[in-house]
Design goal:
Length: about 170
Amino acid sequence: MKILWLCLLLAPLAVQAGEWGKEKSGRFEQDFDNEKPWVEIQEQLPPVPKEENLLKFFVSSATDNQFFVDGSSLNVGQDGVLRYVLLIESSSGSANLTFEGMRCASRERKLYAIGRPDGTWVRARNPRWEPIRHEARNRYHHVLYDDFFCPDGLIVTSPQQAVEAFRRERLR
């Protein structure tokens, strides 16, 4: 009889302990197992590059264009985006200057702004993340992703690490 009374007295405590365990378990999963949504930080437009900061890289023998990244513009953001200024010069002397970002985690790139001949920037009309594809047309994004900014699909840890990759490329 004493055992029956003891069971009846302890039953509510067991149920309450079970509910407490569920509550803590649910909160633990919410706090640690669910990924927080990615949020992009607002980018700041960099200064126009100086010639001494340009890092040349090879894209393909199928083009006469020359490709450069402004080493001083490299920035690894807290949002996991590597931002940079890209300069493409044609053999005829024309140039395209862009400010872009690259997300290694999703293999995407984004155009933020286009450089003007007067040294100012104009923001892109419809900036959006686009996949980096293996296409001849924009092969330079693929090269930047694989060889300089996202080796093995992981973002470089600092701008200096990316600059060192450009310097190693130059020595080849």
